[in-house]
Amino acid sequence: MDLGISGKKAIVCAASKGLGKACATSLAREGVDVTICARTEETLNATAEEIRALGGGSVQAIACDITTTEGQEAVLAACPNPDILINNAGGPPPGDFRDWERDDWIKAVDANMLTPIFLIKATVDGMMERKFGRIVNITSSAVKAPIDILGLSNGARAGLTGFVAGIARKTVRNNVTINGLLPGPFYTDRLTTNLKIHADKQGISFDEMAKQRAEGNPAGRFGQAGEFGEYCAYICSAQAGFITGQNLLIDGGAFPGTL
Predict the structure, then answer these.
(1) pTM of the predicted structure, to 2 decimals
(2) Could you tell me which of 176, 183, 171 has the C-alpha nearest to residue 217?
(3) What pLDDT does 200 receive?
């Protein structure tokens, strides 16, 4: 299927590895010119070269911390009029809420709620004027089914979800959609970190814990980042203009509900 987005411009945050990298790769393969950012310059540049080698759209890399004003300004200077915005940031650390202080909460909200909101604010009006825009917020399956040790993430991402629920119904008339993609257990650095914590708590090996968790998913496995990237590319497609304000789970059937 031709997704109808060749020649469009995209900003993909936290794209040096994991799900962000997968989204940038899938978009570039569709002919989208992507601007990727992450904090670690060496890893980011290697990712940019890897995506360029696949052909498709152009790739420019901006090494920065997108959760800061300076980082946001640098990315928007490099791509001032994006047609596609993929909001993504590393999740806050797991732990016990009793151990978190105000600074921990502020940092989580800055990264996983306020940064996406500020980037939407900076880009959505231009998208509406051009009558095309696709904004995707990569959040977490915890938005629908909170995970006990991820309280910082649960709170910040739920706040973003609530905010988007309102404005997504205002922008769609101008062919600008805003949706959340909620990853379940994808095999990424984030997942391996959480698995190690659980393995240590239970006194078993990492491999044993990973096997238990994978087999416990209805799909019998963890998701692969490339699957997520392809789903993201479709949500950004010309054909997806009637999908907005949704929180779309990609979790192998792990969520047990119907809604």
Answers:
(1) 0.94
(2) 183
(3) 92
